[in-house]
């Protein structure tokens, strides 16, 4: 019995000591999250749209041979600048010159026959008035004149046709420009079905086509200014304008082709180059923009965390456009002066207390 009493006394003593130690320990302090915030201030922003394009000559034409024969001379070659009407190559005239000589002789004969028939008609009409010949003889003279007149017209047409055929033996440029490609060699046999012998293009101006989505169509009105940059021409920008949009969308891609023109006095822009065009949207009033890390998307609802009197408040917002640098335009939900959490929003929830420091761009990456 005495042993039991001693044991119970020891237990009571140990329990009292534990309570004193627990009372001596302070309760753990609650930590307040530290977040980075920005104070909303509307700013003037420039929204652009960017599209890849391939440059093309303002004009480009494949030149074929209207004559049939062998190429006897190459006058112009790839890269040459030529004026309108300049000779590019010559085709052997074959028997065209003989045909032209024959038609010239036929024309002379028809001219002589016409003049004789005209004199005969005048003489017969005079004799008919004096009743020296019959009406039948006068009609015969008139028929002979009309026949000679028709033969003269036919001879002139034949000569004109042969002259034109002979001119076809000279392959000429339809307008001033550069020879982009030559596909024929000296001695080649050519005909109208041989395909283009030369490809000529005018590059005083350059055109490009951009395929834009249905949502971007509104930015491409005729006359709208665009900016072109070329990867191989660093530091250079070329200004152009929208020439015309296609009247309909491509049903397979649901895109619209836009034709854009650029003046090219320095000839720095070459057909076949690819570049990127940028078009500015219409200027708007200053708007609210945020770093995308400040925006929450949950269950189809877009919102941000604001801080009011050191307390977090979740505010639904409506997004607008996306800037080229990735920032988001806020169309509605918050206004100037609001303090929005950018860094640390994963550490907070609606209604808790936080400490704030200004958002630093250096942590953006």
Note the overall shape. Answer: elongated
Stretches where pLDDT is under 50 for at least 5 consecutive residues are: none
Written as H for each helix and E for each strand, in order along the chain, the element string is HEEEEEHHEEEEEEEEEEEEEEEE
Structural class: alpha+beta
Strand content: 35-45%
| CATH class categorisation of the domain at 34-46 and 285-363 | Mainly Beta
Task: Report the span from N to C terminus.
Answer: 76 Å
The spatial strand order of the largest sheet comes to: 2-9-12-11-10-13
The CATH level-2 architecture of the domain at 34-46 and 285-363 is identified as Beta Barrel
Mean pLDDT: 84
Rg result: 46 Å
- Please estimate the helix content: 10-25%
- Give the strand tally: 21
Largest sheet: 6 strands, antiparallel, barrel
What do we call the CATH topology of the domain at 34-46 and 285-363? conserved putative lor/sdh protein from methanococcus maripaludis s2 fold
């Amino acid at each position: 019995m005495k042993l039991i009493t001693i044991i119970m006394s020891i237990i009571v003593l140990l329990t009292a000591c534990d309570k004193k130690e627990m009372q001596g320990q302070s309760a753990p302090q609650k930590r307040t999250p530290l977040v980075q915030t920005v104070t909303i201030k509307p700013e003037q922003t420039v929204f652009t749209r960017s599209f890849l394009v391939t440059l093309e000559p303002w004009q480009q034409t494949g030149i074929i041979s209207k004559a049939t024969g062998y190429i006897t001379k190459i006058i112009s070659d790839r890269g040459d600048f030529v004026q309108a009407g300049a000779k590019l190559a010559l085709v052997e005239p074959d028997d065209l010159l003989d045909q032209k000589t024959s038609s010239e002789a036929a024309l002379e004969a028809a001219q002589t026959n016409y003049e004789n028939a005209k004199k005969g008609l005048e003489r017969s009409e005079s004799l008919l008035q004096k009743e020296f010949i019959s009406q039948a003889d006068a009609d015969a003279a008139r028929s002979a004149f009309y026949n000679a007149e028709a033969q003269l017209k036919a001879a002139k047409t034949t000569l004109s046709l042969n002259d034109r055929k002979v001119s076809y033996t000279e392959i000429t440029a339809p307008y001033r420009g550069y020879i982009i490609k030559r596909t024929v060699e000296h001695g080649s046999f050519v005909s109208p079905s041989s395909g283009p012998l030369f490809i000529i293009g005018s590059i005083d101006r350059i055109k490009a086509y951009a395929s834009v989505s249905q949502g971007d169509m509104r930015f491409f009105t005729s006359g709208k200014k665009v900016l072109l940059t070329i990867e191989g021409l660093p530091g250079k920008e070329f200004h152009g304008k929208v020439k015309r949009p296609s009247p309909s969308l491509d049903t397979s891609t649901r895109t619209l082709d836009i034709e854009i023109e650029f003046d090219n006095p320095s000839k720095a822009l070459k057909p076949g180059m690819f570049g990127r065009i940028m078009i500015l949207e219409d200027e708007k009033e200053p708007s609210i923009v945020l770093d995308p890390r400040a925006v929450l998307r949950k269950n189809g609802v877009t919102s941000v965390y604001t801080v009011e009197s050191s307390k977090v408040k979740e505010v639904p917002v409506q997004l607008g456009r996306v800037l080229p640098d990735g920032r988001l335009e806020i169309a509605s939900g918050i206004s100037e002066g609001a303090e929005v959490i950018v860094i640390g929003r994963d550490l907070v929830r609606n209604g808790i207390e936080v400490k704030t420091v200004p958002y630093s761009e250096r942590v953006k990456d």
